[in-house]
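ugh ok fine here u go
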Amino acid sequence: MNVVLILADQLSARWLGAYGNPAAHTPNLDALAARGVRFERCYSNTPVCMPARATLITGRSPQHHGVFYNGYELGTDMPTYPHILHESGYQTLGIGKFHLECHGRGAYNDVTKYGFERAETTEDIRCGQWLDWVRDTYPEYYERALATVWDEPHLARYGPEGVDLRPAIRAAREKYPDRGSLIHPRPSIVPQEAMQTTWITERAIDFLRERDPARPFFLNVSYVDPHDPYDPPQGFLELIDRNAIPHPVRPEDPSLKQLREKFQRVPFLRRFADCDEKCWLRLRHYYLASVAFVDAEIGSLMAFLERSGLVDETFVIFTSDHVDMLGDHGYA
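structure:
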């Protein structure tokens, strides 16, 4: 049997229609849940990306793999499931976000050392192989993509040629100032056909077309969405019933108030200090639209498996690394 493991970044089950969310538009994931096995009590080992992903790929807790928070990198001295599958004869293929190395290290992460024989990556920082693909495939959208790139030191020596990409990024941001921000989301300034999520699906399908048909395959398809900043295509915002969006769960335990006040010392979390009910509902609207976008791309991937005659000989697994509070109990 083949295996396709699909990850969405920062997604709780309660944002899917199959798990009862009244505002969700997730027909493809709902159909997958209806025909498969659904987990009702599955909890992330840790609430942030790098340790959660290290746990997923090793099957070990942070106490054993040593990745305690973002900024700790997974070593290569312990087995991963891609290693084990590869040693068992599987083609091990990966596309998308892995976040096993720090974003500041570079735009191109090599995950073959974790057991993938072929992989292409793109991360939250929105550069690397996806950005290069936009430049080569959609040059008319390249400036738009540049405007979304996160600030990282390695942009001063970007790519094999060591180009200083920072001036081009600054110019792109000046040209496209309405790209939104963490608590003021906007629809994507990059057209849907050139977005990260679309690229991940297209490259996953390319990998399947180009695989060795004589060997079973393991394919890890790891979407960056719905990770913030929430910037889905405009059309997916229109699929969400804003009146049905669940309101944040209000904090009731007095001890949580003291804990929240401590969390406000963290610079990232201070950005949400003034986020009121209206703010959280807007963020939830954009988040749900981002989930709907991922769902549509998963539908395209499943349709390819159907057309190729692979669906009946492939285990398809869908999960996430951790969740997003989106205002519940006063947390981001």
